[in-house]
Amino acid sequence: SVERDQMNVVVIGHVDHGKSTVIGRLLADTGSLPEGKLEQVRENCRINSKPFEYAFLLDALKDEQSQGITIDSARCFFSSRKRDYIIIDAPGHVEFVKNMVTGAARAQAGLLVIDAKEGVQENSRRHGYLLSMLGINSIAVCVNKMDLVDYDQAVYESIVTEYREFLEKINLHPRVFVPASARDGEGITSFSENMSWYKGPDVLEVFDSFEQPAKKIDKPLRFPVQDIYRFTKEGDDRRIVAGRIETGEVKTGEDVMFLPSGKKSRIASVEAFNVSDKPTRAYTGQSTGFTLENQIYIRPGEVMVKESDPPCRTGTRFKANIFWLGRHPMIKDKRYKIKLAGARESVWLREVNTVLDASSLSASDKREQIERLDVAECVLETIKPLAFDIATEIAETGRFVIIDNYEISGGGIVLENEPEGKDRL
Ligand code: GDP
Question: What is this structure's pTM?
Fold first, then answer.
């Protein structure tokens, strides 16, 4: 069988605006529920004499999944004709943000849910902000509970106008807005006559219209060097450059470059461990080693790229979004360690541009430090140049962790490189 396309999507919105109902409906209406689950939940409701809710489906599934294992990020699955979806759902914003910046969970797209009767709330704005800070820019908006406003087009349009205006300000451009009533199954996988004024896609079609980022193997080669092994073979002094291929692929005979040093060479051989046939190609996900045609001196922490690919960025100063989990606030001009791509270097916080409190999601401008549970857009600086990527282009080498006193205290994504600073230590 052909491997099916898979996509992670986060569904987010103000509490009670109907996220779980939208998800429950998607699961039920695409036939993605385990056999008998719907009936079981309906029966439970009947026994306890409470009205059935699609949102209960999620609770039932979560209970089942979490038995015996600790999960800090609940997931559920459904399939369309086009692909399989994993819905990332976190019990709180904090876990969600943490999982997103550390890479434990990765969403390629987001669906924002808004209650048509309640309209755009402070939280709806904060959620937009959060998605923007996490670098999730493939998004759509579902205006839910249209039944409560008699499927009135004018109400829908005014929410669309207001929300779109806000989202554009923070550089989020929703692919589409969809009116829906998740409770009544309207606009999720089909529409009735109630909203004949709406000509766009339903929520399921919106999911299918989200574009996949390039597959890891189709991306440029990124091979952070972990180690260099020296050995002597038939009197020859040879070196194996070892690491894990984060993205892309490479073959013997191809021209490569190491960054940030800029040293160049050519792949002489692919050194696979524990196999008898020598491969001539290595690809994404493999832990492997290479010998090079000439003996150049490279350091662990450099990133090997292909000369024919776009290189990664190099520099000592870059803009990033950081999620801070440290016991003490992250403060300016104190030395921390950063682990980025293969490198581990000293790093300093130079500027804090904007801060979003992950638990209340309230935002504020310029601050002097980053408190625990803040998501901050800031400028970081190292002394030695680093090789990295912009997270929206290549997430694997665009994410980092910050270490304070031997403890992982924060995680983040690289937004862009900055001109070299004047305030270097
Ligand atoms: P969440 O907190 O965002 O996950 O919201 P839920 O999905 O749990 O829904 C909150 C409440 O709104 C529940 O009582 C749902 O039955 C109700 N609800 C959800 N969608 C709709 C809808 O389309 N129409 C109406 N009238 N109620 C809805």
Answer: 0.79
